[in-house]
Amino acid sequence: MNIETLSAPPLPSDVAALIADMGTRARAAAKRLALTPTADKASALKAAAGSIRAEATAILAANAKDMAAGQTNGLSGAMLDRLRLDEGRLSGIADAIEAVAALPDPVGSAIDHITRPNGLALSRVRVPLGVVGIIYESRPNVTADAAALGLMSGNAVILRGGSEAAQSNRAIHAAFAAGLVDAGLPADAVQLVPTQDRAAVGAMLRAQGVIDIIVPRGGKGLVARVQDEARVPVLAHLDGINHLYIDGAADPAKAIELAVNAKMRRTGICGATETILIDRAYPAPLAIIDALIAAGCEVRGDKGIAALSPHVEPASAGDWDTEYLDAIVSIGQVDGLSGALAHIDAHSSKHTDAIVTEDAATAEQFLSGVDSAIVMHNASTQFADGGEFGLGAEIGIATGRLHARGPVALEGLTTYKWLVRGTGQTRP
Q1: 355 near 245, Cβ under 8 Å?
Q2: One-letter-per-residue 3-state SS of 22-45
């Protein structure tokens, strides 16, 4: 099916009615998906990936319009980087869909099983959440990632992308939906809100009984609004204020390589390091500073760091609580592991924090002492990504304590139910 044959439904004048109608159709699709065999879901995802590849020219043309509008509207370099598609990135989107198709299906899998003394056999099995609303900004890849994860986990999804990526999102969604229909699954399994009216976000947040959970993915303003206004459960994180602590026992070459990669590989992703903490006992802090500056990074430091180089700007109090999403890093000196843990406890957003050290005992203290969704030893924080965890695509890093934590992929989009099998037992 050509994507041009899939037209959006007429847009009601009442946005709440629009969301309610989309929710009704999504609920019907979700009931079907919950019973769809794994092989059929995998085939549909492969068809969707193939459709995206076939429509690459149209998708890239749509993205070019978004990029031109974004430059005109003064989007930051980080935002433009998140928005930009090219042949390589679009191929990566299709690859990610196919990777999800190859993952084990969580639906129906047993979490645990027990047999009671009275002979009752109890098991917990994974089931879909139902209808998942995803509100996101900038990144058009989220359209495909969320659609693929939702479908493979048996959920219908309602997508509401940001206005800066509207053209790209529509083109990707149309291609994805065309693939589903070609494979025999309903287009209503993956719907894109056909308006950029901000009232649509509010309608989704108040859609109790229509949408089962909201997943926001975007900047602090978006996520804060969702958490403040939602009447539907929310799975979210705010900032990615991630730390890289360089211990006194760190290998200098490893410390430089990890610091530059963690900050500069892609500055606009939520796994980028924003603050580097250096043990006062570490012998070569200037080499780390120089390497970051040479890589094009602006360094803002505390008094000890600023004294090491005239190229370091003094850090303000606010720098330690800032997610730059840009080629800027704050660096501070701390008194060993205890100083690092205290700073991270005060300033981390509980997303991803890492230590560089050759001391195994210190590493274990850091791994157990840092209360973040992802804690790393001798690895770049840029690995904070569902694909790198072997989970396929992910729709965000959850930093809360309930339901899911860390990369939210297939299992994070399921809940569970109890199955009880008896042989005629009655309760005395």
Answers
A1: yes
A2: HHHHHHHHHHHHHCCCHHHHHHHH
Strand partners, 333: 278
Q: For residue 30, which amino acid is it?
A: A
DSSP 292-317: HHHTT-EEEE-HHHHTT-TTPEEPPG
Q: Where are the domains of the chain?
A: 3-235+408-420, 242-383
Chain segment 289-348, per-residue pLDDT in tens: 999 999 999 999 999 999 999 999 999 999 999 999 899 999 999 999 999 999 999 999
Q: What does the block give as tokens for 346?
A: 């005060």
Query: How far is residue 62's CA from residue 271's CA, in Å, rounded to a whole number?
Result: 27
Going across the sheet that includes 131-136, the strands are: 190-192, 156-160, 131-136, 213-217
Residue 96, φ and ψ in degrees, nearest 5: -65, -40
3-235+408-420 domain in CATH 3.40.605.10? yes
pLDDT at 347: 96
The owner of tokens 């790198």 is: 388
Q: What are the backbone dihedrals phi and psi of residue 207, each rounded to the nearest 5 degrees, phi first? A: -90, 55
Which residue type does 354 have?
Answer: A
Output the CA angle 227-208-6, nearest 5 degrees. Answer: 95
Q: What is the pLDDT of residues 27-47, one digit of tens each?
A: 999 999 999 999 999 999 999
Q: Which tokens is 268 given?
A: 């606009």
Of 3.40.50.300, 3.40.309.10, 2.10.109.10, 3.50.50.60, which CATH number belongs to 242-383? 3.40.309.10
Instruction: Quote the Cα angle for 395-72-58, to 5°.
Output: 55
- What tokens does 328 get? 């800027």
